[in-house]
What we know:
The protein has no helices and 6 strands. It is an all-beta fold. The chain has a domain at 36-80. The strands form 3 sheets. A two-stranded antiparallel ribbon has the order 1-6. Strands 2-5 form a two-stranded antiparallel ribbon. A hairpin with a 2-residue loop joins strand 3 (54-59) and strand 4. The radius of gyration is 14 Å and the shape is globular. The two termini are 26 Å apart. The relative contact order is 0.23. The mean pLDDT is 83.
Amino acid sequence: MADSTLINGLGRYPGGPKTDLAVVNVQKGKRYRFRIFAMSCEPNFIFSVDGHNLTIIEADSKETECKTVNSVQLLAGRHFA
């Protein structure tokens, strides 16, 4: 089972050093695009932003009909924007 994730190259793992975690500063009322890549051997995990919905505009490098969700399931090699 996976026990760590990197966001913008920063993360922690059990028993490892208490390094800085990624912080994404945002301003209320603005829209932001996140590109989410599953570049791992872990076959499945869920990505969400607590208390916020996500609008999917692209999946696996193909534009798609916009869909609002509260989380996305990532499988190895997949990505979303």
